[in-house]
Specification:
Blueprint (H helix, E strand, L loop, with lengths): L3 E2 L2 H21 L5 E7 L3 H16 L3 E7 L5 H12 L6 E4 L9 H7 L11 H8 L8 H13 L7 E5 L6 H10 L3 E5 L6 H5 L4 E4 L17 E4 L3 E2 L5 E2 L4 H4 L5 E2 L6 H21 L1
Parallel strand pairs: 1-11, 2-3, 2-4, 5-6, 5-7, 7-8, 8-11
Antiparallel strand pairs: 9-10
Bound molecules: guanine.
Guanine binds next to strand 4 and helix 6.
């Protein structure tokens, strides 16, 4: 079998067009959805991600503020900036790019963002809303992965979904979103014994471990939908996922490439969350 390769760029374009209609409707009422992205320090990868986020907002005609703070910014200064943005009516979404420098308590910072402006969906209130099945703002990467499954027409109900990786950013919220759609969900961690036993039973396999090419074709059930959330740069400069693309594509039914799979969807759902937050504030 040769997998159908999921074109994340094309699907992201389609989804962005849907959200542009909603953004334009708000603008017609005099409300321009606004996003503030804060980056602290000089992490090269983070700078690229933040640049892409700001660019996506501009493409959809959203207002955005790119706030770059030096690496030695104090926690109090960052908290004061967040308080200012919480009170700013032109800003509907606030995102603090992670990781933060070590002297800053990320948990405290994420909790300081007003939950209704928390377009990352990381605030405990938004996490709780997701757990109880009434999601408000959902974490962008798993939200984007769910949208990919929806757009390619993969049915979720009754399927066995296996997630490798249990981060707060991807693994845990992805599990909750799949559970909400009536999948049977297994979450594997780095300590899971006989990982292949679990992954081989997955109708839907989501991989977010940060370990380049760790899931190989022999670990995949023939015909499975495989979503690769990983993005790793090899010493030779090549970008690869957490799934070994060449062997996986011979077995899977659907497979996301890296780059060009989940990545474009993450940014799209950030824009979607910003528009949704602005819609709610306008009600
Ligand atoms: N760093 C890596 N992924 C993310 C994300 O989804 N949101 C934020 N804020 N930082 C990140």
């Amino acid at each position: 079998m040769t997998a159908k390769i999921i074109d994340g760029k094309a699907i992201a374009k389609e989804v962005r067009a849907e959200w542009k209609v909603r953004a334009d409707a708000l603008k017609a009422r005099g409300i321009t959805p606004g996003l503030a992205v804060i980056i602290v320090g000089e992490d090269a990868a983070s700078k690229v991600y933040v640049g892409n986020k700001v660019k996506a907002c501009a493409e959809l005609g959203l207002y955005s503020e790119h706030i770059a703070l030096p690496a030695d910014t104090s926690q109090d200064t960052l908290l004061a900036k967040i308080a200012e943005l919480n009170a700013n009516h032109a800003i509907h979404g606030i995102l603090v790019q992670l990781p933060l420098p070590k002297h800053i308590d990320s948990d405290k910072v994420l909790k300081a963002i007003a939950p209704h402006k928390d377009v990352d969906g990381f605030h405990p209130m938004n996490v709780g809303a997701l757990v109880t099945g009434n999601p408000l703002l959902r974490p962008c990467t798993p939200y984007g992965a769910m949208k990919l499954l929806e757009k390619i027409g993969v049915a979720i109900e009754g399927k066995h979904a296996v997630i490798v990786g249990r981060s707060n950013i991807v693994g845990k919220p992805m599990a909750l979103m799949l559970l909400q759609m009536n999948a049977t969900v297994t979450i594997c961690t780095s300590k899971t014994r006989n990982l292949a036993h679990h992954t081989r039973d997955a109708d839907i396999l989501v991989v977010a471990t940060g370990k380049p090419r760790m899931i190989t074709g022999d670990m995949i059930k023939p015909g499975a939908a495989v979503i690769d959330v990983g993005i790793n740069r090899l010493p030779n400069g090549k970008l690869v996922g957490d799934v070994d693309f060449d062997s996986a594509k011979e077995v899977a039914g659907y497979l996301t490439p890296v780059p060009g799979g989940v990545g474009p969807m993450t940014i799209t759902m950030l824009v979607a969350n910003t528009v949704e937050a602005a819609e709610r504030s306008a009600q």
